[in-house]
Amino acid sequence: xxxxxxxxxxxxxxxxxxxxxxxxxxxxxxxxxxxxxxxxxxxxxxxxxxxxxxxxxxxxxxxxxxxxxxxxxxxxxxxxxxxxxxxxxxxxxxxxxxxxxxxxxxxxxxxxxxxxxxxxxxxxxxxxxxxxxxxxxxxxxxxxxxxxxxxxxxxxxxxxxxxxxxxxxxxxxxxxxxxxxxxxxxxxxxxxxxxxxxxxxxxxxxxxxxxxxxxxxxxxxxxxxxxxxxxxxxxxxxxxxxxxxxxxxxxxxxxxxxxxxxxxxxxxxxxxxxxxxxxxxxxxxxxxxxxxxxxxxxxxxxxxxxxxxxxxxxxxx
Length: 317
Prior knowledge:
The structure is a single chain. This protein is 67% helix and 10% strand. By secondary structure, it is mostly helical. A three-stranded mixed beta sheet has the order 1-2-3. Helix 2 packs parallel to helix 7. The chain is elongated, with a radius of gyration of 24 Å.
């Protein structure tokens, strides 16, 4: 189950703007890296550099999907979508993950296999390749540090480990930036090692192998992201910790004697739909009970993360 993004169900500062800034920084870094790696791949002919360039262009395109996800999921509720548009974040993030798997990975494998089968003498300019990888490492590292900074602050608020929170958070955009930038850093190290072995041994097998390893890395990252978005699209429930916080919050409401049942489901990044069954204080007429329940629901919905709350009277048995 997903980790609670809402802590003890009290209002928190909206992090939508922070996520947007993280995405913009990641997009800018990916554009710079993709251009530099493409030039280096053309000059050096390195299979690993081709794989890295394909990875970076795929990431650049995927960042557009993530920016769309962040923007469209932040729209307010209306008559057509009373539970808001939060789940759009998972749709666009899912498309980005599939794009990473297909676009970035396929080119890497194709070029790597071509190099393994033909092993041409490319006459690589190793210095250019190393310089470009160093620049790319700095740019992607800057983007990764930004994502870690955002995640660290949120993880600290919920007393969670950063890596665990990154994988479990209901915000798919910051998770995608963190995971993909981390994979990019590892990919640079793989590419550098493959180029160095090519330089030392004089055989392109190492370079081609590096290209394929980058593909395996991209595939693993994409599968993780696809699975996480699938879970939230199909109705990710709140964790036991979040449920207990909801029970505690509802029990504090006036006129609530006992909380019998609570069901929580994510409807978007840091957005939940809450259903609960309660016993009310006293023995009032049906009309009074209905009015009381509506008042309690409105009190819960004052929390900006609760898109809708539905309370019913518990069965006495």
